[in-house]
Amino acid sequence: MLSVETRHAVHPAQAKVMDTAELRAHFLARDMFRDGEIRLIYTHYDRFVMGGAVPAGGSLTLETVAETGTERFLDRREMGIVNIGDTGSVRCDGECYEMARGDVLYLGKGSGAVSFEGEGRFYITSAPAHAAFPSRLITPADCKEVRLGEPASSNQRVIKQFIHPQVMESCQLVLGYTSLAEGSVWNTMPSHVHDRRMEAYLYWGMEEEARVLHLMGEPQETRHLFVANEEGAISPPWSIHSGAGIGRYSFIWAMAGDNIDFTDMDFVKPGEMR
Ligand SMILES: O=C(O)C(=O)C[C@H](O)C(=O)CO
Ligand SMILES: [Zn+2]
Asked: Is there a single domain that holds both residue 116 and residue 52?
């Protein structure tokens, strides 16, 4: 079963006057992981798509998504998949990729139908693509690690870059995940924006009762979302995307837009934020 929800792009002036329910309706990505279903969110931010596929021991196939207006979803798109569950496999273009928890699969433009099998919980990201780069399974051993922050500022974390120019080629997609060191709570602090690229977060690896207080909004007009495990935040190009969590957590970040330079960020000092 496939379901697709559309999220339209929001002007910052509109976001400024939203109440909690409206903020959550536009920017919180929830209910993406249901047994036996593929559930997608089609955003109008760089036409980025995020979602979940949970085969629950069976098999699910993603082929046509009416929203793209193409015969098959990947005809003019690339895809990044992260397995946040137990081991499962993804079949595409005559290949079968076995994915352990934390593995990332890149599927290039024109790869055809995608089938999800086994006990995986597959987080799906996708963006329009102009060229067909080779599909590739990237394990944590192949990723590029960046260590940032320190315990004294409660922001010590490891950034694992998978779909990233220093690891492999892609069109628009840049993807990886960040894990907080024990005792550190802050991700992406100091905050930044990058008007050239949208970004989406998926928080995972959290206790059921835990929450991340995800900060969003223009730097001088911040708002927040309380986010649970396996929920995400859609970050428009004008918005910061930072958070402080209760207990351990990781988050998958994925971006699409005008460049694939991970370091192209406009930082905001904490003292400049409101
Ligand atoms: O902890 C961090 O800092 C991040 O993971 C930053 C995100 O990857 C990001 O916002 C990239 O633009
Ligand atoms: Zn960012």
From this structure: yes
